[in-house]
Design a protein that fits this description.
Layout: H1 2-7, H2 14-38, H3 42-65, H4 69-89, H5 91-94, H6 102-120, E1 125-128, H7 138-145, E2 151-154, H8 158-161, H9 169-173
Parallel strand pairs: 1-2
Helix pairs in contact: 3-4, 4-6
């Protein structure tokens, strides 16, 4: 399941996440500071902010830990709509300052499309990428509980294997 998540053709490289989220949150913080000063309905602004915060925090465990792809898609879609609402609704008051949340909105568009891709792509194979532990492999446990045939496949990920010595016991074991 984790491998399926990394196969999405539009998946950004790993280093981009830290850079992007730092930039997005700095821009969003500046946006919220200006919005708090200029927007007349602070209660509405606070409600939308709190909803976006809850959705943003809840999406990661729902999608990555529990692998509830459909619920993750619903959460991230609502989040994208909420951030789009902030961008659009406060543009008259904030002008170009509203564009500070454009990176957030664009990131959510990309993340929503990736979540949708993963949700709509089904695969009957269980693939191992990092390790072979069966006891904590959620995808394998789920597949085995369905009482259907399961074909486990180990995929050598060059991002991992290239960093290991050639005589590493894990490689020779596999």
């Amino acid at each position: 399941d984790d491998m399926r998540r990394s196969e999405a053709s539009r998946m950004p490289p790993g280093w981009l996440f830290g850079f992007a989220w730092t930039t997005i949150m700095i821009c969003f913080s500046i946006y919220m500071a200006f919005a708090w000063i200029k927007v007349s309905s602070k209660k509405s602004l606070l409600i939308v902010y709190m909803i976006q915060l809850f959705l943003n925090i809840s999406w990661n465990p729902v999608f990555f830990n529990f692998h509830w792809d459909v619920l993750g898609l619903i959460i991230i879609s609502i989040l994208m709509i909420g951030v789009g609402y902030l961008l659009y609704s406060n543009y008259r008051v904030l002008g170009y300052i509203s564009l500070l949340i454009a990176p957030y909105f664009i990131w959510l568009l990309i993340a929503t499309s990736l979540n949708a891709y993963i949700t709509t792509t089904t695969n009957e194979y269980i693939r191992f990428r990092r390790d072979l532990r069966l006891i904590d492999n959620t995808a394998l446990s789920k597949a085995l509980s369905l009482e259907e045939s399961t074909l486990p496949i180990f995929i050598f990920d060059s991002n991992i294997t290239d960093e290991l010595p050639k005589n590493d016991a894990r490689i020779s074991f596999i």
